[in-house]
Here is the input.
Amino acid sequence: QVQLVESGGGLVQPGGSLRLSCSSSGFTFSLYLMKWYRQAPGKERELVATIGTNGGTIYHANSVKGRFTISRDNAKNTMYLQMNSLKPEDTAVYYCNIPTLNSWGQGTQVTVSS
Here is the structure.
């Protein structure tokens, strides 16, 4: 059974940093491309970043480019999203996703506010 569990969210001031983690089980983690999405209140879910199976094929949305960095550790079955220089508009629930398995985590709330 595929399981994805996000963690690391919280309340942070503008300009601050957070590191999100997506821990996985129930499948061979290293074989799958993975993604981070986010959904702000009243808005559609949007793609934030993508990472290939070996850490290559990396994509970051223009809205986060230069501030967020996606990475993965296949030995730990975990994907990460390092978020720096956070802005209030980054406030959202962040989800990890395996597109080919159509699997989602439960999400972790990130709130950027002074």
Remarks:
- The chain has a mean pLDDT of 96.
- The chain is about 0% helix and 50% strand.
